Amino acid sequence: xxxxxxxxxxxxxxxxxxxxxxxxxxxxxxxxxxxxxxxxxxxxxxxxxxxxxxxxxxxxxxxxxxxxxxxxxxxxxxxxxxxxxxxxxxxxxxxxxxxxxxxxxxxxxxxxxxxxxxxxxxxxxxxxxxxxxxxxxxxxxxxxxxxxxxxxxxxxxxxxxxxxxxxxxxxxxxxxxxxxxxxxxxxxxxxxxxxxxxxxxxxxxxxxxxxxxxxxxxxxxxxxxxxxxxxxxxxxxxxxxxxxxxxxxxxxxxxxxxxxxxxxxxxxxxxxxxxxxxxxxxxxxxxxxxxxxxxxxxxxxxxxxxxxxxxxxxxxxxxxxxxxxxxxxxxxxxxxxxxxxxxxxxxxxxxxxxxxxxxxxxxxxxxxxxxxxxxxxxxxxxxxxxxxxxxxxxxxxxxxxxxxxxxxxxxxxxxxxxxxxxxxxxxxxxxxxxxxxxxxxxxxxxxxxxxxxxxxxxxxxxxxxxxxxxxxxxxxxxxxxxxxxxxxxxxxxxxxxxxxxxxxxxxxxxxxxxxxxxxxxxxxxxxxxxxxxxxxxxxxxxxxxxxxxxxxxxxxxxxx
Length: 560
Hints:
about 70% helix; Growth Hormone, Chain: A; two-stranded antiparallel sheet; single chain
């Protein structure tokens, strides 16, 4: 009998422990690639690496654009007369724009592909950053922040779509760690560079340098970035290992026994690149240069598209434009009707808010007594500790995350549950409130700046692995609606950021820095401890969400 509750969204047979007699386990490739060489899952390793390097560079640039402004606040205040309240409000306006930008633009990435959205967003940001270099009025300041963040919001969703397009489940932990690293490095190192540029060339040159970097990025994407949205146009292209997946859902983990079965015949003709073997803990990928297409009577060859064909400005998922309006509300429906998605939104939102509030506090309070930091010092304090902490955290968790799920699934008879990712979240939870308290009370009592820097470093050591783990959990649990789910996650993330940035300065003025950071630490700790409940009940919640997920999947303009 089929037990649907054993195979809710995200649960999968990741390793076949009975694959052979040499005590090896065979990793099932999930999602199953087709036998079409144009399928991004079948790309050569260097093609995947180039594509994702460009995506990470895009992420770095976008988050640099969002956070590079803070070291320019003091000279902007002196030259243009903008008050710190106005500057804080402009940052909050940008955070609000981040809430809605992806709701408006991501449907285009589902309909026309990822490539046009990457390219056109870079072109738009090039124009906006040139405008930034010539800013004169408060209206300029507000509009620049809003427009930059509307386009910047794409990076927080479309990258997860790209990860789902190109990589398998057992690779996504590392890819999400690299993504989180790019976001936090863009947000933390850009203020460092901006501080020195402001001192050496003037604050307007911060935006001229950003315009140059964006221009270079635009050229790279036009000529090197290939579309990752895949819709198999060839009727001979079939998903590899779809029969194995079907048998797994029936509750079995053994391969079919009747070799005469038609489905068995298809399964036996799977190309070498469809599985990976694990022996003594080492993973080795077979070469993916062999592809086969099946028809009733013969085997045919599917050709790789020519270079210019692969660089077409847009593609077509086959979805209807009538779904556009629906997609704009579907993320909110998913957010509030599928509890694991709301959990991801809450955790991802609250840990990334910690970075934004510390950056704004550094920029607002450390130019004054007792620190009297200049622009370069503000950039260093706001960026360098976070860079070091993020790098340490992700160096620990990046290679470990995917190995952990292989280890845990092997103990679970080869079956992978997305909640296995959440042990990472729980392990790194104590770092977040500890870092906030050290920084907050250090600033309250005017302690030496190395103590404040240590607090920011510890905070980043916690937030980076937690963000990576939550994003991987989200992508693995609801792959077919990853775009909608991520839009909902980012909506909550930026809504929280907007609220905190708006209220933080008045709150500190009323209650004191130390008390505010204490309250924030308690709130954040309680939210992070929800992970204990998800480890216990997460699968049950995914079982309950299965009918809704199936309905949302049908309407998601999913090309694959």
